[in-house]
Write a structure and sequence with these properties.
- By secondary structure, the protein is mainly beta.
- The chain has two domains: about 60 residues, no CATH class; about 210 residues, Alpha-Beta Complex (Fumarylacetoacetate hydrolase, domain 2), CATH 3.90.850.10.
- Helices cover about 10% and strands about 30% of the residues.
- The protein is built from six helices and 19 strands.
- Strands 1, 2, 3, 4 and 14 form a five-stranded antiparallel sheet that branches.
- The protein starts with a strand and ends with a strand.
Length: about 280
């Protein structure tokens, strides 16, 4: 099933798409797509819910995200374009949840930014608490998957000292959605096409099969370090084709249009502007 949150920013309601692609209002069943409700999505019967008419804005499909954990250098092609060794363990960093925005909301470059970059990524949404889980059981803790644009300001990330977090956490730097797609609709999560274009020119064309650490390994690994709670999101790294890895490097400018998609998970579109 495909779950959404729709409406004005800050006032979104939970919804679900029925088999015909119609939007149904879920607010009479659950308050929001967050917390423990994410572990009960299989109980929803979309066709019994009220239809939502008209064109609506889609917000991030998960609310009240406790933590947004990111995995760096997790594709063989991306590690190669960056000239870095293949990691022997997952590279882990955190991205501020205040960076979260809707899938088609604008990207606001921070003041003075010259190196804002794109990263199309598969996101994992945790549905039930995971602590010390093994890889065999890891996927049973997943509520679903979504598209993440893990936007980065490379100067803040790489040139100003400290941790990567500050180059990753600017407002609007984590567009999510459009949908939270349950695992039964996704099938093999390690064989999904990942694409991103800027102004119509393809920059990234990868596949989740190129991951160094697959989804089950990432969940299991993180659960040895921290409890993964319902509503936590893991962004699993990006394929080759980011701006900082190009020769010459290419970064976003005001007016650019970024479009990205992951097979079975839908697509996003953002217009870039200066904050």
């Amino acid at each position: 099933m495909k779950f959404v949150r729709y409406g004005d920013s800050g006032a979104e309601k939970p919804g679900v798409l029925d088999d015909a692609g119609n939007l149904r209002d879920l607010s009479g069943v659950i308050d929001d797509l967050s917390g423990a409700a994410l572990g009960r999505l299989g109980d929803v019967v979309a066709e019994t819910l009220p239809l939502v008419a008209g064109n609506v804005r889609f917000g991030p499909p998960v609310s009240n995200v406790g933590k947004l954990v990111c995995i760096g250098l997790n594709y063989y092609g991306h590690a190669a374009e960056m000239g870095m060794d293949i990691p022997t363990e997952p590279v882990v960093f955190l991205k501020a949840t205040s960076a979260i925005s809707g899938p088609n909301d604008p990207i606001a470059m921070p003041r003075g930014s010259e190196k804002t970059d794109w990263e199309a990524e598969l996101g994992i949404v945790i549905g039930t608490a995971a602590k010390y889980v093994n890889q065999t059981d890891a996927l049973s803790h997943v509520a679903g998957y979504l598209v993440v644009n893990e936007v980065s300001e490379r100067a803040l990330q790489l040139e100003h000292g400290g941790q990567w977090t500050k180059g990753k956490s600017c407002d609007t730097f984590a567009p999510l959605g459009p949908w939270l797609v349950t695992p039964d609709e996704v099938g093999d999560v390690q064989n999904l096409a990942v694409t991103l274009s800027v102004n119509g020119a393809v920059m990234q064309a990868g596949n989740t099969s190129d991951m160094i650490f697959p989804v089950a390994k990432v969940i299991s690994y993180l659960s040895q370090i921290m409890t993964l709670h319902p509503g936590d999101i893991i962004s699993t790294g990006t394929p080759a084709g980011v701006g900082v890895g190009m020769k010459p490097q290419r970064f976003l400018r005001a007016g650019d249009v970024v479009e990205l998609a992951i097979e079975k998970l839908g697509g996003q579109r953002q217009v870039v502007h200066a904050d």
